[in-house]
Structure formats: C-alpha cells, structure tokens
C-alpha cells in the first residue's frame, strides 16, 4: 500500500468525488458506497451498493446482514463493465464510502465483507484498488488487497 501524491492524488480526488456521487445514489440503508473503474485514464464503469435487481432494501435484513444481502459497489462496477464488454485487466478501481451524507475514511480494509470483492478484483485482472484513509488516499495492488482481506477474514 502506498499513499498517492501530487498529480496522481489530484486525479484520485476527482475520481473519488465521482465515486461519492455514485454512493449517494445507493438505496442501501446501512452502507452507501460507490466504486469507479478507470482504465487508460478513462472511466469504464461505476457501481454502488444496492440490493439485487427487482428487490428493495429491507432494513431488517440490510442492517443485520448487509454484507451478504446487498450487491457491493465493487461487484456492481465489475458486473456493469463486463455487461458492456469492457476489459478490466490493467484497470484501477476507486472506492468511496458515505455515512450520514459525508465522505468517510476507511481505516483499513479490515471488514470481512471486503474479501468478497477483493477476490473478484484479483480474478478479473483489475490491477489496483484505491481507498480513502485518514492519512490520505491509498492504493493497493490487487494481490496485496486480496492477501490483506484474506488474512483479516481468517482472524
């Protein structure tokens, strides 16, 4: 993991703003998150936390089992990209979390729910994953992100 600086940080802040707008569209009652996939400096897909198609967020389920009930923002971004024939290999995914209408930092990807997404990110060839931490915007290689989330899930 490394923190982004200078021009890379400026670009990341812009894309994280787009991810935040995507998160605000989420119908999930517990966790509003947005994900943006960029390849060759172009946005190729977006996704947000939402229940499966033709279902609605049911707070009794969502608040207790959100990680299993909703389609995660990362998963939706991947599915949306594949549905329109986008190549994910070599891309970078940006993730943003919104709580009470405000951007929230993610201390570390230490929630067990990250494992579901990290394995898809690695498997589809997405190269890097970007998160907002309290010390700045951090980028993980897909392998590093997967290994970290796998260790966390084993604890």
Could you characterize the architecture of this molecule?
The protein is α+β, with helices and mostly antiparallel strands and 155 residues long. It has one domain (2-154): 3-Layer(aba) Sandwich (Cytidine Deaminase, domain 2). 42% of the residues lie in helices and 26% in strands. Helix 4 packs antiparallel against helix 5. The longest helix is centred in the N-terminal third of the chain and has 19 residues, at 6-24.
Question: What's this, in brief?
Answer:
The protein has 155 residues and is α+β, with helices and mostly antiparallel strands. Helices cover 42% and strands 26% of the residues. It has one domain: Cytidine Deaminase, domain 2 (3-Layer(aba) Sandwich), CATH 3.40.140.10.
Mean pLDDT: 89
Q: Helices and strands: which structural class?
A: alpha+beta
CATH homologous superfamily classification:
Cytidine Deaminase, domain 2
The CATH class is identified as Alpha Beta
Report the CATH architecture: 3-Layer(aba) Sandwich
Strand proportion: 25-35%
Shape: globular
Could you tell me the number of beta strands? 7
Query: Helix content range of the residues, please?
Result: 40-55%
Please summarize the sheet with the most strands: 7 strands, mixed
**Alpha carbon gap, first and last residue:** 21 Å
How many separate domains make up the residues? 1
N-to-C SSE series?
A: EHEEHHEEHEEH
- In angstroms, what is the radius of gyration? 14 Å
Poorly predicted segments: none
């Amino acid at each position: 993991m490394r923190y982004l600086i200078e021009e890379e940080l400026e670009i990341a802040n812009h894309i994280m703003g787009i991810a935040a707008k995507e998160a605000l569209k989420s119908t999930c009652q517990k966790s509003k998150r947005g994900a943006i996939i960029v390849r060759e400096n172009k946005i190729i897909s977006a996704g947000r936390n939402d229940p499966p198609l033709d279902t609605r967020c049911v707070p009794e389920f969502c608040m207790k089992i959100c990680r299993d009930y909703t389609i995660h923002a990362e998963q939706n971004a991947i599915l949306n990209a594949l549905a329109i024939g986008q190549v994910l290999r070599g891309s970078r995914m940006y993730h943003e979390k919104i709580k009470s209408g405000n951007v929230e930092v993610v201390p570390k990807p230490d929630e067990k729910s990250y494992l579901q997404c990290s394995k898809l990110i690695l498997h589809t060839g997405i190269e890097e994953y970007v998160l907002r931490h309290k010390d700045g915007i951090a980028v993980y290689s897909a392998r590093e992100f997967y290994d970290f989330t796998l260790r966390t899930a084993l604890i």
